[in-house]
Specification:
The complex is a heterodimer of chains A (283) and B (317). The longest helix of chain A has 37 residues. The two termini of chain A are 36 Å apart. Chain A is an all-alpha fold and 283 residues long. Chain B has two domains: 73 residues, no CATH class; 224 residues, MetI-like fold. The longest helix of chain B has 39 residues. Chain B is mostly helical. Chain B is 76% helix and 0% strand. Classes of the chains: A mainly alpha (283), B mainly alpha (317). At the A-B interface, helix 4, helix 5, helix 8 and helix 10 of A face helix 1, helix 6, helix 7, helix 11 and helix 12 of B.
């Protein structure tokens, strides 16, 4: 049986991972295909239907401009997920490279990187993001950068610690004795062996990135209207929370379901991949 | 190394981190677009007024000198004056007035989180694989998946607007009335503590389950010790080490939650001050708040380290 089919089989047998994968599949289908199939527009106003509660025609109700909340949530989910994904991707790429290089090289580089990540770890993550938004200005791009900066030290540290564990393994030593270059060893020998915990971290990271985006935009310090990110929709719903509580509460419920999917997927993948390596690396 | 020497080393490290952190915050803030003088005086301010403003706040001095002047003053408890949101007021005064509220809400949430997670984690581990375990672990995953600011609105919807047990907005400072603070701070504290309690409970459950199969537990059992004694003395006590460590790691998320929740419930704390300052482009206030949070996190981590050396004396060496 090919490797990928065995892995897929393991994924299906792990109920946690399967539940997470199913939820995420539904969420992804919703924000891609579902958003396009919705009969309403995410931005056009409909003054005949202002603040109507959830019904068959509008499962999540309508907002103060008569816009269908479900349509907006699907489009907003697309935006928020892309923002979070982009931020985590930047953090994962930069963090993994720095962490691996730092562990492999050792010495002063390594010490400097660790002190830098210690410093970033000493700020509350949301305070760091907030601070960055003040310096860079509000907007989509800077939310991505803020998420990347919050996640960079986490990936750098994880990549460093796993690389340290693996670089003394015989197969890495053998590659070195065969005269392979440092880059080749890092990418061909080390990276495939530390990828699993990084992927698990990334799936949890995307979940938390969505929370950061939603939190910043909710306060008005992140994505700015009229772009309908999930945080913007909730901030909007806060304005008329007493008259139309469904806008805020049901949008948040959709976010929670998506986060639940990502967290279950992360938990399941963690069990499937080597838990020993991960636990050692986290210390 | 003696214990006192180890603690002094830790202290030196913390002082150094505060210095480097303050330097980083100051320098990054300098790179922010926009001249504070124009923020305060307006975009159309005459050049003489801008120059006078720069001179008054030492903005025309070299950057390193500016940093040093600012840092030395800050060490003495003087963060300068607010530019826009409370024009001219002493920032230290603003923070001193709000810090007790932030610490109160943070501690309140932490204590709630610890109580709930100790119960949930222990029950889940003792009833592994049974219904209670499934329920507790499911609640924990749900707890992690709920954004705290959303949860606070759900709580307001249900318990303030719905049944009317708690106020939906406003906070009584603990200085005025402790019972009033406990009452009005309950919903915010629950919202902040829910995701944390979930993480704590998961850590405790995993640690308890792992320790239950260690050799020293089997040995203790073969000595005929009572199960309750074995659990408390050998399993639970050792499980507290990773548990306390995770509390230390989660403090940064707790304070992040405090920032948003303070704003939602109208709690006059350092977090809501920072958000106001972010809106008003009040750079020195943002800096002072960021550094206040830095010092809190470092202080808590120091206490957590002390607690860990107490629980695990091997670490002292």
């Amino acid at each position: 049986m090919p490797l990928w089919r065995r892995r897929l089989g393991a994924l299906v047998r792990n109920r946690t991972a399967l539940a997470g994968a199913v939820i995420m599949a539904v969420v992804l289908a919703g924000i891609t295909l579902g958003a396009e199939l919705m009969p309403y527009s995410a931005v056009d106003m409909d003054f005949a239907n202002i603040l109507s509660p959830p019904s068959w025609a509008h499962p999540l109700g309508t907002d103060s401009f008569g816009r269908d909340v479900l349509t907006r949530v699907l489009y907003g989910g697309r935006i928020s997920l892309l923002i979070s994904f982009a931020g985590v991707l930047i953090a994962a790429a930069a963090g993994t490279l720095t962490g691996m290089a730092s562990a492999y090289h050792g010495g002063l580089t390594d010490a400097a990187l660790m002190r830098f990540s210690d410093l970033l770890f000493a700020f509350p993550s949301f305070v760091l993001a907030l601070f960055l938004m003040v310096v860079l200005g509000f907007g989509v791009q800077n939310v991505i950068l803020a998420i990347a900066l919050v996640y960079f030290p986490i990936f750098a540290r994880l990549a460093r610690n796993t690389t340290l564990l693996i670089k003394e393994e015989p197969f890495v030593q053998a590659a070195r004795l065969m005269g392979q270059g440092a880059l080749r060893i890092l990418f061909r020998e080390i990276l495939p062996n530390i990828a699993a915990p990084l992927v698990v971290q990334a799936s949890v990271g995307v979940a938390f990135g969505i929370v950061i985006e939603a939190g910043l935009s909710f306060l008005g310090l992140g994505v700015q209207p009229p772009i309908p990110s999930l945080g913007v929709i909730m901030a909007d719903g806060r304005e008329y929370f007493q008259r139309g509580p469904w806008v805020l509460t049901l949008t948040g419920l959709v976010i929670s379901i998506a986060l639940l999917g990502l967290n279950l997927l992360g938990d399941g993948l963690r069990d499937l991949t080597d838990p020993r390596l991960r636990r050692q690396a986290e210390l | 190394m003696s214990r006192a020497a180890a603690i002094s080393w830790r202290f030196l490290g913390i002082a150094l981190t505060v210095l480097v952190g303050a330097f980083a915050v100051f320098m990054v803030m300098k790179a922010a677009p926009g001249d504070p003088a124009l923020v305060v005086l307006g975009e159309q301010a005459p050049p003489e007024a801008v120059a006078a403003f720069h001179q008054r706040y030492h903005l025309d001095a070299p950057v390193l000198e500016q940093f040093w002047l600012w840092f030395v003053a800050a060490l003495g408890g003087d963060f300068g004056r607010s530019l826009t949101i409370a024009g001219g007021t002493s920032i230290s005064g603003l923070i001193a007035a709000r810090l007790p509220n932030t610490i109160f809400i943070g501690l309140y949430a932490l204590i709630l989180g610890v109580i709930v997670s100790l119960a949930m984690g222990t029950i889940a581990a003792l009833r592994r694989g049974r219904v209670a375990d499934t329920v507790a672990t499911s609640i924990a995953v749900l707890g992690i998946s709920m954004p705290d600011f959303w949860l606070s609105y759900v709580l307001v919807f249900a318990f303030a607007l719905g049944v009317g047990w708690f106020p939906s907005y406003g906070f009584v400072s603990p200085g005025q009335s402790l019972s009033g603070a406990l009452y009005s701070g309950f919903l915010p504290a629950v919202a902040i503590s829910a995701p944390m309690a979930a993480v704590f409970a998961r850590t405790l459950r995993a640690a308890l389950l792992e320790l239950a199969h260690r050799e020293f537990v089997t040995v203790a059992r073969s000595f005929g010790f009572a199960e309750v004694f074995i659990f408390l003395h050998f399993v639970f006590r050792n499980a507290l080490i990773p548990y306390v460590t995770v509390i230390g790691l989660q403090v940064r998320y707790l304070l992040g939650g405090v920032v948003v929740i303070e704003r939602i419930f109208g709690i006059a704390g350092v977090g809501s001050l920072m958000v106001d300052a972010a809106f008003g482009r009040d750079y020195p206030v943002v800096e002072a708040c960021a550094i206040t949070f830095l010092v809190i996190v470092l202080g808590v981590n120091f206490l957590v380290d002390l607690a860990c050396t107490f629980l695990d004396p091997r670490r002292a060496n």
